[in-house]
Amino acid sequence: MSELAEKRILLGLTGGIAAYKAADLARGLIKQGAEVQVVMTDAACRFISPLTLQALTGKPVYTSMWDDRVGNGMPHIELSRDRDLIVVAPATADFMAKLVHGTADDLLATLCIARECPLMVAPAMNRQMWENPATRRNVKQLSSDGIIIEGPASGDQACGENGMGRMSEPDQIVESIVSWFQPKLLAGARILVTAGPTYEPIDAVRGITNLSSGRMGYAVARAAHEAGAKVTLISGRTGLQPPANVSVIDIITAQQMHDEVMERLSECDILIAVAAVADYRVSNREQHKIKKKAGAGLTLELEPNPDILGSVAAHKDGPFCVGFSAESQNIESHAAEKRRRKNIPLIAANLVQAAFGSEQNELILIDDEGAHRLPRSSKLQQARGLIRHITRLYKPGRKSVTAR
Ligand code: CTP
Fold this sequence. Notes:
There is one protein chain. Helix 1 (22-31) packs across helix 9 and helix 10 crosses helix 15 (379-393). The longest helix is centred in the last third of the chain and has 15 residues, at 379-393. The protein is 33% helix and 23% strand. The protein has 15 helices and 21 strands. It is an alpha/beta fold. The protein folds into 2 domains: 8-181, Rossmann fold, CATH 3.40.50.1950; 190-393, CoaB-like (Rossmann fold). It binds cytidine-5'-triphosphate (CTP). Cytidine-5'-triphosphate (CTP) binds next to helix 12 and strand 16.
């Protein structure tokens, strides 16, 4: 899928060893449909040849303020106009310092100052340079100037040291750019997302859980954040890295998830319940590890857990509620029945066999109008499709519409 179709991106390279990764970044952006114009500093040209970037982008690479190939002889103006975004990757400590001070001593720095579009930088430097108080101050200043900072990441560095400062991987930068371009359809909305499995203890070391990986819920939280919402993710144990800029509340049991959701209801406009919540918990739970008794069976007594989504939907003046329904057969009819039973305006159904443990999914969205299928794609793309659908149904300040 071309996530950056018709986007015009200026890719700037400054002089760091991570410049070699910029070739992959240029390819990744082009693969997503972007039109990429490369500008390099002299120092960047010492690490990677402009010819490499020219071959990958199919366009001449600019390096000098005095390049007369552009129409009006002013590349710093002409190259920065009609751009949707400038991305400087890698961005050295020196280049970030220049941006802070408005220094305009080469083509890339000058066109950054002359730009009319947003600017993203992907810092790349040695860990000590990243931790240096001057760099810390500069990063803070760039953020408050509205410049988007992507990364850096932590790990092995070209100099042989290990720590924070290496440039984000090209795939991560592309993903971040795609996220940044998502329309802010839910700006200002407060969204609660439940995700992952719950775990119901049997004794001190054993419990009942399920195969939910949490990936769909995390993708929904991320897509909601990309759409401009303030997102709180209430999550069972997943081991996943939470999406950036989302508040995460970790829970273990269904009762804890219920309590955390209820506590936040008054500050919630939309609830998206993606979690695979255990319907029952063990009522004869043991404090200590149960010892086996040779030849004897063991009976667990189960009592129902609260239905989190059901209780929120029943709440007077509750948020707009979206449910999930994992089915192993008869997806549409089971999900439609669940939607009616829970009295929610929208339910997203999927086939468990196609979703659990997989990177992809295939949702069917069921609302008052009927069923809407999202073609099979990554969970993040499915989540974006779901968010777009929610924005069509959700009216700020409105109580959930009654499901038929
Ligand atoms: N849900 C919830 N609290 C529960 C159980 C489920 O909030 N105690 C939410 C899930 O997060 C999901 C939806 O309700 O959004 C699923 O509905 P449910 O009827 O519980 O689905 P299943 O557990 O799959 O139901 P069944 O066993 O009847 O198929």
